[in-house]
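Deviations from the work plan: none for this task. Representative record:
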Amino acid sequence: MADIHTLDIDGLRRDELLSRFLDGDLTAGEQADLEEKLANDAGLRARLESFKHQDDLIKASFRAKSTTVSPILVARLQKDDTQTASSRWQGRTAGIGLAASVVLAVTVGLLGLQAGPSSKNGFEMDASLALALSQTPSRAEGWDALDDDRNFRAVLTFPAASGNWCREFMVARSEDHWRGVACRHDGSWVTQVMAREVFLEESDGYRTASAADVDQVSRFIDAEATDVALSAGQEAAVIDANWR
Amino acid sequence: MLSETQKAQLMAELVGLKRFCVSLTGDSADADDLLQLTVERVLERGMPEDAHVAKWSYRVCRNIWLDELRSREVRQRYAAAASTTDAMQSGGTGDGFDRLELERVDAAMEGLPEEQRSALLLVAVEGRSYAEVAEILDIPLGTVMSRVARARRSLAEKLE
């Protein structure tokens, strides 16, 4: 530990002033004083520039890191669903104070990569859905009418490893809810993965999702997304550019 | 219970909260768990109608992490290998900086005490004011100033 003879008190004070200046925390008087000193002291200016450069590096580093948020978590927040998948911490497993006997479980109809629509699960990519994917901004809640008996919600847009744009979306038709991802390919929307969401009722509590019921949609996004979901402004620009 | 407005505000904070979790835990998997537990805690317990959603959530996050540290009885250090892996997996070099520079700053951040690292992240990356950081971290304003300045000073020494 440095003793009183080696502590660079002046250096500490200088760095604190520069740090507060960078963060906009100086009073008007302090700022005026410091600006005058900066104008006359090249060393001080260089120190400030190095702090600024460090900040830029830190921002770039943290923004380049995995700052994606699990779509499962986003969906949970949207639904205000406190049921949770297993956490590694303290051996916690799903469920926090659930009193209701109705549980949402996701059963998966994994279509995988395919070049066209599939009728396996009763849901197909069609002109209405393609138009909705092309034009509809993402939203956290609420639905847009797709046609007479279906509603649509775009959930998020993200860039995929293939270089194409992809969108997570939901479709609801009476009791049937679907969640999927479609990606642009040669000017068309192609379904990549679909999952049918099913509500199960249990009489003696709730059933946690088994390993087999893992959300394939989320896993697809985790595997394919090369960056965080677009912001509203970014997405609007991509929609305006017709997904080019 | 959260109001719809509070939920929307919390949703808007998720990415920043995730970065905060990374700064606290130093590990991507732990950061995901911490974020999940934070959201669950906030949803379970709600918050006052007039609460500042961001500040409240960051405080909940930090308190959960402190509880976790106490229960583990081990102080984790930020893992350079995990951060390098995360940066590589992101597929980008980050705003035009080369990978080597980013790796150097990652390593330098690794060497900071957690309290300095999280204060600097909240100010420099998340753009929080000193007053907000003082509330989030539950420390005096002067301590925020000192930690942020010391963090920058230490980084400057390491990156010279």
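The CA atoms of residues 75 and 131 of chain B lie 27 Å apart.
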